[in-house]
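Input (structure):
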C-alpha cells in the first residue's frame, strides 16, 4: 500500500539566541514543507517473524526563512527504512533508520551539518476503536561527525490520536528535546 503526505509546519513562537550568539531569534512563521511517501514492502502477516517492512522517501522544499531557523535554505531529501511489529491486537511498535542527502550548512566556523543519519522508535496503543496514544523517540546525527552531542539532538513525543474517518486521523501531542541544534525545549504537535 502507498501512503502520501504533506507536512506544513508552523512555529507559533521561537525564542533564544541565534547560533552565532550575536542576536536574538524571535519570530513566528511557516517552516519548510515536506512531501513524503511510504510504500509497504511486506505486511506483518507475510512472514514468520510478524515484521512489516516499508520504505519512506521524502523531499523537503525550501519555504521557511533560514535566517530565523525556520528553514534550511536549500532543497533536500532522503529515505527511511521502516520495520514494524504488531505486539497484540491493540499495540504496535516500529523502528526506522534513514539517510538524508543535504548540501552542507555552515553553522559556525568549526561546525557544519550536511548529510545525516536518522533513527526513530515508536509505540502506539489503541485505547478504544476511535482513540490511540503514541510515544516516539528519534534523533538525527551528521554522517561525517556521528553522535556529536551538540549536532545530535534527541526528541521524545507523546500524542493522543482520534480516528475521525477510516483514512483520517486527528492528533494532539507534546514533545521535548535534548540540548543540541534543532531540538526544542518543548513543542506542541497537531495534525
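Output (sequence):
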Amino acid at each position: 500500500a502507498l501512503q502520501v503526505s504533506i507536512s506544513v509546519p508552523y512555529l507559533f513562537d521561537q525564542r533564544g539566541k541565534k547560533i552565532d550568539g550575536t542576536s536574538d531569534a524571535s519570530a513566528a512563521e511557516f517552516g519548510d514543507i515536506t512531501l513524503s511517501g511510504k510504500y509497504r514492502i511486506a505486511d506483518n502477516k507475510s512472514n514468520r517473524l510478524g515484521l512489516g517492512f516499508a520504505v519512506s522517501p521524502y523531499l523537503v522544499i525550501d519555504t521557511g526563512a533560514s535566517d530565523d531557523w525556520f528553514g534550511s535554505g536549500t532543497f533536500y531529501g532522503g529515505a527511511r527504512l521502516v520495520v514494524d511489529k504488531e505486539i497484540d491486537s491493540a499495540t504496535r511498535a516500529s523502528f526506522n533508520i534513514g539517510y538524508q542527502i543535504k548540501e552542507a550548512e555552515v553553522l559556525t566556523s568549526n561546525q557544519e551539518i550536511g548529510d545525516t543519519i536518522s533513527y526513530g522508535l515508536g509505540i502506539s496503543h489503541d485505547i478504544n476503536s476511535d482513540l490511540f496514544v503514541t510515544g516516539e523517540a528519534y534523533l538525527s546525527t551528521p554522517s561525517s561527525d556521528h553522535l556529536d552531542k551538540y549536532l545530535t539532538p534527541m526528541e521524545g513525543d507523546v500524542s493522543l490520536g482520534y480516528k475521525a474517518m477510516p483514512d483520517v486521523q486527528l492528533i494532539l501531542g507534546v514533545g521535548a528535546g535534548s540540548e543540541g541544534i534543532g531540538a526544542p525545549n518543548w513543542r506542541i504537535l497537531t495534525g
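Notes: Residues 100 and 179 are 21 Å apart (CA to CA). The mean pLDDT is 85.
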